[in-house]
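=== Per-residue structure ===
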Amino acid sequence: AVLLTNLALCYFKKREWDDCLEYCHRAHRVDGAYVKPLFTRAKVYVTIERHEEALRDLNKCLVLERENVEVAAYREGLMRDWDDQMAEERIVRVTSSHQHSGGDIIGDAAAASLLSLEEGDAVMDGSDEAVRLQCRIIDELMKYLFGSKNLPHCAINANITADNATVDKKSSLVLNSLKGALSAVQLLIAFLNKSRTSRIYLRLAGYLHDICDLLLNEKENTKSLNQASCLAIIAAGIKDEYRSRNLVKKVR
């Protein structure tokens, strides 16, 4: 089994997936308790996008060696990436299949959406309309923050602080022409902190890259986005988001 696994690893390094799989199969048939061919086969399955088979092999590895840190970490990364991919596909499908009507939605609709969110919302569990609304709110806020539109005067039934974006239903935040910029940043951060949908959409729509570009290339700030605001939005936007963190690293 060891010899067959070593041959499989040689083919793995050469990226000859079919031959690698063949020797992994043979090694596993010789010794079903040997983890290495199973783990190698799982990595090949991931490479050729056969994720269910990869997960099955990784689970077998952990049954055989429960304390195998390398396998456990690889499985966790696979599950995270798989979940990210499904969430992204849903957001793209929902936002591309519906053309919203005109008009502003920053106001009661934004407040209701924010207050209804559970901490770290699951993208796959919400309704299409809820996902679409959150994405559109991000669109509207970013248009305002980048100076392409004015934010209307509106009362929001929430008190949002820039530090932790806590929500107090009893108080009211007024967005107007004088205080709108700061309030819009606070509202955006609140959504990003509470909504995974918003964090993923910030990246998918290109806004996260735009904010990083604005910050790192020292372009002239917009009327609403200074350096501190950019840093706060980036910090909230990459919260618990592996792909978003990677994007920021690449931009840096």
Remarks:
- The two ends are 45 Å apart (CA to CA).
- The chain is about 65% helix and 0% strand.
- The CA atoms of residues 195 and 245 lie 16 Å apart.
